[in-house]
Structure prediction request, 392 residues.
Amino acid sequence: MGKKVLVLSYHNWITKRWGGLHSIGEALVEDGCSVLFWSLTRTYWGAFSSRDERLRWENLKGILNPQRGKTREPGLTNLALLSWEMIGERRIPGMVWFNDWARGRVWKRFLRYLKEEEFAPDLIVLESCEGLYYFERLKELFPEAKVVYRVSDPILGWAYPRPLMVDAEKGVLEKADLVLFTSQLRKEKYKKFYGPWDGRVQVLANGMDLEGFQTPHSPPNLFPEKRRIYCYVGATEPCWEAVLALARQDPLALVVVVCPVSPSGRVKGAIRRVKNIVFQDGISPKEVPSYLQNCSVVIVPYKEWLIKAERGLHSKILQAMVSGKPIVALNTGEGLEEFGVCVTSRVEDFVSQALQAGGEGVKEYPLDFTLYSWTRFKEEFLRRVHALGRER
Prediction:
């Protein structure tokens, strides 16, 4: 392909979380593109917070380095520019203006970088993040560049969608050359608000590290022998009410929660009192198979607001399926029961179903998992992007 591509992502390139935008960046590099991976938005308050994996110490060192957040790999440059933006803009007088000013400063620094590097993208790929704010400016600056919007976490599915973000996303949906939803459920939900749509709005499900899960792995050191283990591995903070209730109902079992989002002080106190919960603040993607393959039940207890996120058959569910484990979910929304996942909407039901699933053993699911590998995802993404180039 040999083109210059700008990718705007919520994630840092070097991270414990591997998602669709990482695979997209990797696919573009493998296709011969020069990729600028702009990591949005890194705020000063967030950089010194411990509640989010994306700004842990390993990433923070890169963000605060003398090169102002630039890290380079063959074919790809990661750019992370710290911003003065603050949270709670709708509750604090003048904060909307302040955040607009802060984003403006980041934009000016970004323009300086483009000028220094003489980087003019032929393709712009952005996901559901603060990068949506910059879409109109980017289109004005690079009118010939094709735009792909990867609807990774639709703004309408957020717990508290910001009006400015909703408006920005609507503009991108109207003007992008290619829109890729992660599931048909999400596409249909958005169609009710913004449809009807033509063929440029499509579905491309995320993939998973299929190869890593096809090889048996030894259990992690924290897994005791001959003991029932309930395990959650995910980037989204779980419903701690459900986790604590399960631990109390099965005191002889171990409940393992692996998540980059640290629980609140109140929850940490409850964990210490219950004594059969282990919290681990994130692991590398290569370690995930050992956790899911060696537990008794994979639990996916989401908070209630995540029902409207319509995640469908997402990577964490697929990973549990290919590991052959029973899955008990809470507040995951529609579309999983047909694949053999036990979906609940109340904490009491979640606990009772998890206790019942504890004795099931190996479980098989009616899916061809080769259709969900990251390799296939990258091939399919490139095919659709190449089709955009032929439309010129």
Summary: The longest strand covers residues 34-43. The chain is about 35% helix and 20% strand.
